[in-house]
């Protein structure tokens, strides 16, 4: 199927006129966007339909990726790219006298996720489709996405994100595929006359789950997979039971809004409702599809792989059991075998405050039958494991304890695979966090280092760099990212290095234009652009970054004639609305920015830009403009990180602790092409064990640091009286939980090394090039090949270069 520009213009005009019955030139860019989206939907509909049909006809094994969050970013351009018609359409639009970039920019960026976890799910959707793997996403169609962030006097203010205001061209409502999800009421088991116990429900609240499907278009391979997001509605036949606004509200609330917590657990009833809602709906629709094929139950796990992204969908385990036992009449052992063989689980964090656990009573009341099943799973686990491992160890692994249901324990016991998301993270799971489980089930544990799609994060976000790479090594890297390593051959080629520098400069100019227009800040695009973009969290240590900035500022104030490498510090971060400390850090950084940006002594030596409302679209603007990638979490705390991979792919040099995937970046680029600093995980553990760390002592021994900290409380930074004191206290009175002060000196030293290297443009560019050329192994294509091969046991039509499947190293 090839499309000419002329054909495109004709077809597009037809679609537009059918939609709006008016002239396209008079239309708003939103209308133009909407029409283009519709054109794409029509253009790809045959492939969508055929992909489905092919999977059905061949009865292939399919994956269902259950995730509470998806963070897809704008889809127009990436759909055009993957359909192979980006250039044709862009030319056609231009010939029609329309503004392509304006049309692209009028798509809202659907923020149906918080950060890394949701973005990972969306990168995986792209890779699964692009590898031709039969795979489906399963999640929630939130009416409101992650809040919009504004700064008012430097404080974060949250506004609702009404992303559906203009409709959503990509989705298709499928009310014919709706299912009913049951909450509450009472349940008891009754003999059914055939020697089987059947549950009898009464007084339940029945909610209709209606799917909205979005095509996940593979890269130039005619594959269109499905992302299914569920919306809660009142069942038509039960309208009578929902007379008041308040009654109806309870139903609407289930899919009303995404919880804005990242790496943090909130034990709210509504959240539990959300989790069961999309899990139950997804599992019901899988079973329905399986039954259509009229295969024996023994075939279930040969045809279906269910992946649980973090513990939010862990109720997949008891829900699948419930359906198999209660509705299909299978015996416990058979149902349990099917469940375990079908389900696999990814752990995303080791932080205690992020571990999900639900009060027993809450589960009992909201999901009485599910609770009975969890209890039975728990009891069987105890009965089976006590004789093998003794009481002590076994009771440390139970699902129910201290009045709570531990979701990670449920996911581990009810699945056949448990993976961490970077080598260090998986090692920590095995040796520390989940060591009891590792002793019981050593073969369940495996590592799958996260990845990112090079199609969105390089091809689309950085088209100029894409052209350079295409010109040097050809285009194969788009489907086989291992090929990026060929680019290394140009690391000493002066022409290539200078092209690389020109491209970086243009990308920095593009960001500078945005900063000027949006924030009226003038940036010097030749300055070093230093970027930290990620959720605001104490463990990610934006504070350490800010203290370094403050230290530089003091240096300039001491001697305004000092020659310093000019830098632009870019921050992007949302804080959970309930995370007061994180919001205080935001206020502190904004106040610091205001002070520094307006100080004539500083001039172009330093500028700070804290962008509002960081999300995928801003990431696409910032990442290509970055010189330094700040990955400075306390070692052992960041499970993997993925912005580190996106930034490396775009030629930023990483300045990092040995945490998460930073370690694997170091292994790939070599220590001479990364700036490392700080405590290692082992050193952190040792300090924790010894318990002798004194932040006060570190402060007393470091005059420079002392001066920096004084600025938090001496009024030098206007308008942070409260925040400055709280932050100061967190470091001194509460002894610096995240070792910010301990790592300060080595952080500053790494920054100085970076400054020095930046003076030597050629050496810098060479390292940038090596970073780009070494980033292939972080393609989500490889991550997904390993999931497909080692966990899901599914085949894809485009899985090649299988030697990559052996560990994380390039061939
Ligand atoms: C990649 C990405 C993240 C994850 O960033 P980390 O630095 O790995 O935490 C978060 N938000 C958005 C919008 C992203 O694109």
Write the layout of secondary structure elements.
Elements (H helix, E strand, L loop, with lengths): L4 H16 L8 H30 L3 E5 L9 H8 L2 H10 L4 H6 L10 H15 L4 E6 L4 E8 L2 E7 L9 E3 L5 E5 L2 E6 L5 E6 L2 E13 L6 E10 L11 H10 L14 H24 L7 H4 E6 L6 H12 L4 H11 E4 L10 E3 H7 L1 H29 L3 E2 L2 E3 H7 L3 E4 L2 H11 L1 H6 L4 E3 L6 H7 L2 H11 L20 H26 L8 E6 L8 H17 L8 E6 L7 H18 L8 E6 L4 H7 L5 E4 L11 H7 L3 E4 L5 H8 L5 E2 L4 H10 L4 H6 L2 H11 L7 H11 L8 H20 L1 H13 L6 H13 L19
Parallel strand pairs: 1-2, 1-11, 2-10, 11-12, 12-16, 16-17, 18-19, 18-21, 19-20, 21-22, 22-23
Antiparallel strand pairs: 3-4, 5-9, 6-9, 7-8, 9-10, 13-15, 14-15
The structure holds pyridoxal-5'-phosphate.
Pfam family, one: Phosphorylase
Cofactor: pyridoxal 5'-phosphate
Catalytic activity: [(1->4)-alpha-D-glucosyl](n) + phosphate = [(1->4)-alpha-D-glucosyl](n-1) + alpha-D-glucose 1-phosphate
Can you characterise this structure?
By secondary structure, the protein is α/β, with parallel strands linked by helices. It folds into two domains: 59-74 and 109-447, Glycogen Phosphorylase B (Rossmann fold); 481-680 and 743-778, Rossmann fold, CATH 3.40.50.2000. Helices cover 48% and strands 15% of the residues. The chain is built from 31 helices and 23 strands. The strands form five sheets. Strands 1, 2, 5, 6, 9, 10, 11, 12, 16 and 17 form a ten-stranded mixed sheet that branches. Strands 20-19-18-21-22-23 form a six-stranded parallel sheet, with helices on both faces. Strands 13-15-14 form a three-stranded antiparallel sheet. The longest helix is centred in the N-terminal third of the chain and has 30 residues, at 29-58. The two termini are 35 Å apart. The model is unreliable at 801-811 (pLDDT under 50). GO terms for molecular function: 1,4-alpha-oligoglucan phosphorylase activity. Belongs to the glycogen phosphorylase family. Its cofactor is pyridoxal 5'-phosphate.
């Amino acid at each position: 199927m090839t499309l000419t520009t002329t054909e495109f213009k004709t077809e597009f005009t037809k679609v537009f006129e059918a939609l709006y019955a008016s002239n396209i030139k008079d239309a708003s860019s939103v209308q133009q966007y909407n029409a283009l989206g519709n054109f794409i939907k029509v253009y790809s509909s045959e492939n969508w339909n055929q992909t489905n049909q092919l999977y059905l006809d061949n009865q292939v094994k399919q994956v269902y990726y259950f995730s509470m969050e998806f963070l897809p970013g704008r889809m127009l351009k990436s759909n055009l790219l993957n359909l192979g018609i980006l250039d044709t359409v862009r030319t056609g639009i231009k010939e029609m006298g329309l503004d392509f970039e304006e049309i692209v920019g009028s798509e809202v960026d659907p923020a149906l996720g918080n950060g890394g976890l949701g973005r990972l799910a969306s990168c995986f959707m792209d890779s699964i489709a692009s590898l031709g793997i039969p795979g489906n996403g399963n999640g929630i169609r939130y009416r409101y996405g992650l809040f919009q962030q504004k700064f008012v006097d430097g404080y974060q203010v949250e506004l609702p994100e009404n992303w559906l205001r203009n409709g959503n061209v990509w989705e298709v409502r499928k009310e014919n595929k709706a299912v009913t999800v049951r909450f509450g009421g009472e349940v008891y088991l009754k003999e059914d006359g055939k020697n089987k116990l059947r549950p009898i429900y009464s007084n339940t609240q029945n909610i209709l789950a209606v799917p909205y499907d979005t095509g996940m278009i593979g890269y130039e391979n005619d594959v269109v997979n499905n992302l299914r997001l569920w919306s809660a509605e009142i069942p038509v036949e039960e309208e009578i039971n929902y007379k008041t606004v308040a009654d109806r509200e309870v139903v609407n609330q289930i899919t009303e809004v995404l919880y804005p917590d990242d790496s943090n657990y909130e034990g709210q009833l509504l959240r539990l409702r959300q989790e069961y809602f999309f899990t139950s709906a997804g599992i019901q629709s899988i079973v329905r599809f399986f039954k259509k094929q009229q295969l024996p139950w023994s075939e279930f796990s040969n045809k279906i792989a269910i992946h649980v992204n973090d513990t939010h969908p862990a109720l997949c385990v008891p829900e699948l059991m419930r359906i198999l036992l209660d509705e299909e009449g299978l015996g416990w052992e058979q149902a349990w075998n099917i469940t375990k063989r079908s389900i696999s689980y990814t752990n995303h964090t080791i932080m205690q405050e992020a571990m999900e656990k639900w009060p027993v009573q809450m589960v009992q009341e909201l999901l009485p039958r599910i609770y009975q099943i969890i209890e039975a799973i728990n009891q069987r686990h105890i009965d089976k494991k006590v004789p093998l491992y003794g009481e002590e160890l076994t009771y440390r692994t139970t699902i129910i304890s201290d009045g709570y249901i531990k979701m990670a324990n449920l996911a581990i016991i009810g699945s056949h695979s448990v993976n961490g998301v970077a080598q260090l993270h998986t090692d920590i799971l095995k040796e520390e966090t989940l060591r009891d489980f590792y002793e019981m089930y050593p073969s369940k544990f495996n590592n799958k280092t996260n990845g990112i799609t090079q199609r969105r994060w390089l091809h689309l976000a950085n088209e100029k760099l894409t052209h350079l790479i295409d010109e040097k090594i050809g285009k194969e890297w788009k489907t086989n990212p291992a090929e990026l390593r060929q680019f290394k051959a140009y690391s000493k080629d002066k022409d290539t290095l200078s092209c690389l520098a020109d491209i970086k400069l243009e990308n920095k100019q593009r960001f500078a234009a945005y900063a000027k227009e949006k924030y009226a800040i003038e940036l010097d695009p030749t300055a070093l652009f230093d970027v930290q973009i990620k959720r605001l969290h104490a463990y990610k240590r934006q504070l350490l970054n800010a203290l370094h900035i403050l230290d530089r500022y003091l240096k300039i104030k001491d001697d305004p004639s000092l020659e310093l490498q000019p830098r632009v510090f870019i921050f992007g971060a949302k804080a959970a609305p309930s995370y007061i400390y994180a919001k205080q850090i935001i206020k502190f950084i904004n106040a610091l920015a205001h002070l520094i940006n307006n100080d004539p002594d500083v001039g172009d030596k330093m500028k700070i830009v804290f962008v509002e409302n960081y999300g995928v679209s801003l990431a696409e603007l910032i990442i290509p403009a970055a010189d330094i990638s700040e990955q400075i979490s306390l070692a052992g705390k960041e499970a993997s990180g993925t912005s580190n991979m996106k930034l490396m792919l775009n030629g930023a040099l990483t300045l990092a602790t040995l945490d998460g995937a930073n370690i694997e970046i170091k292994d790939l680029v070599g220590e001479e092409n990364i700036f490392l600093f700080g405590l290692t995980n082992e050193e952190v553990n040792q300090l924790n064990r010894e318990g002798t760390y004194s932040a006060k002592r570190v402060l007393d021994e470091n005059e420079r640091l002392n001066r920096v900290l004084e600025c938090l409380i001496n009024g030098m930074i206007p308008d942070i009286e409260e925040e400055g004191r709280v932050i100061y206290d967190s470091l001194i009175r509460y002894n610096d939980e995240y070792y910010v002060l301990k790592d300060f000196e080595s952080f500053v030293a790494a920054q100085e090394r970076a400054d020095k290297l930046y003076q030597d443009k050629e050496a810098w560019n060479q390292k940038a090039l090596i970073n780009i050329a070494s980033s292939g192994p972080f393609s989500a294509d490889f991550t997904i090949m390993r999931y497909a091969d080692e966990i899901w046991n599914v085949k894809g039509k485009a899985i090649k270069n299988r030697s990559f499947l052996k560990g994380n190293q390039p061939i």
